[in-house]
Design brief:
- The structure is a single chain.
- With 107 residues, this protein is mostly helical.
- 64% of the residues lie in helices and 0% in strands.
- Helix 3 packs antiparallel against helix 6 and helix 4 packs across helix 6 (93-106).
- The longest helix is centred in the middle third of the chain and has 20 residues, at 27-46.
- The protein is globular and about 50 Å long.
């Protein structure tokens, strides 16, 4: 496999969780990864967790942003729909934010 195909498969796997596994012929594994990442992402949003964006005034938020963008298109869609704003007074806020981070890092 050449370098261009490898980069294309890796990029597609970042944009759509599980797609890289599907492209290399591991459909069941790809479906499992996609469903796990999507489920954790939806649960995190349902718990009113916060999706971080790239903020330069808080340097440590960069790490949270990197974890969040790991979900690829899910992150960008949620951000465009103004989801993931986070409600700090909500009882499950911390758990939801952690679910969103782990979903991105799992991908």
């Amino acid at each position: 496999m050449n370098m261009t195909a490898t980069l294309a498969i890796c990029s597609s796997g970042w944009l759509v969780p599980g797609l890289a596994h599907v492209l290399i012929g591991r459909r069941v594994r790809g479906a499992i990864f996609a469903s796990c990442v999507l489920l954790m992402f939806v649960l995190g949003l349902g718990m009113r967790g916060k999706l971080y964006d790239l903020e330069f005034d808080e340097p440590l938020h960069v790490f949270a942003f990197i974890a969040d963008i790991g979900t690829g298109l899910f992150y960008w869609i949620a951000e465009r729909l103004n989801l993931g704003l986070g409600t700090m007074t909500w009882p499950s806020y911390d758990y939801g934010t952690t679910y969103l981070w782990v979903a991105g890092l799992l991908n």
